[in-house]
Specification:
This protein has 431 residues and is of the alpha+beta class. It folds into 2 domains: 232 residues, no CATH class; 187 residues, no CATH class. Helices cover 24% and strands 25% of the residues. The strands form 2 sheets. Strands 2, 3, 4, 5, 6, 7, 8, 9, 10 and 11 form a 10-stranded mixed sheet that branches. Strands 1-12 form a two-stranded antiparallel ribbon. Strand 3 and strand 4 form a beta hairpin. Helix 6 crosses helix 11. It is globular.
């Protein structure tokens, strides 16, 4: 099945889209805050099986679907629209990274690795179809990942995957495109994904429920969307310190020997701490199956842990979109918004974290008032008025989360090990 990207998108133009809208000046003040239940949709796309490609798709933040009937200058058409709800604090600016991921299984053909644009449509109500850049999807022979980067609104969730009928074709997409243009031929594309995806945030939902449309300039009423939203809605109870920690639960049992560098027949002083944080899902191993307890931990990795903890404490599930560049951006931005760190605190997040920096991050990982004072003021010989993050060191010491060394030092500038981080987290979780 030979299709150019233009042909695929021309078919999709039978339905118009509504990307980022112009909202009301501000949401109405409400005493009650709402959240919306979502799930991760998993779906096996077999539409291209005859051509040699199947795809197992995963789409987080899935609320449900509605059928949209839209009148366009090309006629009237109906299509299922997948609806995603991404909480406003989970966006990275106007971006939702990793909105759709897929495991590709080509057989008898080759995928030409590369990337291309996701399209969103605007100006639906004048039938002008002013196309805008809506995002990006990248692909290789095994995976596809799609990002939406133009804010809340309607996108095509279809990735046009370029393929070659020759198994073992190692050309990149751009190279194959140039060669096809030079030869006056077209590449073969196979569509993978969902025709349309409507991505909502809190502000767009509030505006829709109040005004019956998604944006000021729109007239379409989106039948079934209100019922879908109200069916997923629940009242958010303000988190309280005495109940917030109860949100931390054992996620899976820890098995001795599950990490290759911590075999079951060897005992280490840090074993119970690694076991605890692993079972709670706060830390895990690396892709090579090791834990590296005596290895260093970067500032970025610390912020992942701190952001996950704050999200869980606040009632979330500790999941964040993937695919940002660099990969830790979504966690850094969340940590800044939540007051865990301040913008400009660190210039490089890929460097090993020091003991003082970890104290600073983890002393703010949970809301104020959660850490209770158990010990008196610390008296470390190497921590004084001029020591960076000295107040954070004191906070963790007084909460009985950290201790110094036998020689009376804290060693604030020394890199911290992953095992030592496990001790802090285990003490924080308590019995």
């Amino acid at each position: 099945m030979k299709r150019s990207i233009a042909l695929l998108l021309a078919v999709l133009l039978l339905l118009a889209g509504v990307p980022q809208g112009i909202f009301a000046d501000g949401p109405a003040e409400e005493a009650v805050r709402y959240g919306y239940r979502t799930q991760t949709l998993r779906y096996t796309d077999k539409d291209n099986a005859a051509e040699g490609l199947t795809a197992t798709l995963s789409m987080p933040y899935y609320m449900g679907s509605v059928n949209a009937v839209l009148s366009t200058r090309l006629g009237e058409a109906e299509s299922k629209v997948m609806v995603l709800y991404v909480p406003s604090d989970k966006w990275d600016g106007d971006c939702v990274y990793g909105a759709i991921t897929g495991q590709l299984k080509p057989y008898g053909i080759s995928v030409l690795p590369g990337s291309d644009l996701v399209i969103g449509w605007k100006d639906m109500y004048t039938y002008g179809f002013l196309d805008i850049q809506g995002g990006l999807y990248s692909f290789d022979n095994e995976t596809m990942i799609m990002h939406f980067t133009a804010g809340p609104g309607l996108y095509t969730g279809v990735a046009a995957i370029p393929v070659s009928s020759e198994p073992g074709d190692e050309r990149l997409y751009e190279q194959a495109m140039r060669e096809a243009e030079a030869a006056g031929t077209e590449l073969e594309y196979l569509p993978v994904g969902f025709n349309f995806v409507l991505v909502l945030n809190d502000e767009m939902i509030d505006y829709f429920l109040e005004n019956g449309r998604l944006e000021k300039i729109s007239r379409y009423e989106w039948p079934g969307l209100k019922e879908l939203i109200e069916g997923a809605r629940y009242e958010i109870q303000p988190p309280e310190p005495e109940t917030g920690m109860a949100r931390f639960k054992v996620q899976k049992a820890y098995l001795r020997g599950q990490y290759l560098d911590l075999p079951y027949y060897l005992e280490n002083w840090f074993d119970p701490y690694v076991a605890k944080v692993s079972s709670y899902g706060l830390m895990g191993g690396y892709r090579d199956g090791t834990f590296r307890a005596n290895g260093q931990i970067t500032l970025a990795e610390c912020l992942v842990i701190a952001s996950n903890m704050r999200d869980i404490y606040n009632g979330g599930d500790g999941t964040f979109p993937s695919g940002t560049t660099p990969w830790y951006n979504v966690y850094v931005n969340y940590a800044i918004r939540q007051g865990i760190i301040r913008e400009g605190d660190f210039k490089d997040y890929d460097v090993p974290a020091t003991r003082a920096e970890v104290a600073y991050i983890f002393s703010h990982a949970l809301p104020g008032g959660v850490l209770k004072e158990i010990n008196g003021k610390p008296r470390f010989s190497d921590v004084n008025t001029y020591t960076p993050y000295r107040s954070s060191i004191a906070t963790l010491y007084q909460a009985d989360l950290v201790a110094g060394y036998e020689d009376g030092t804290f060693r604030p500038d020394a890199p911290i090990t992953r095992a030592e981080v496990c001790v802090i987290l285990s003490n924080l979780l308590g019995e």
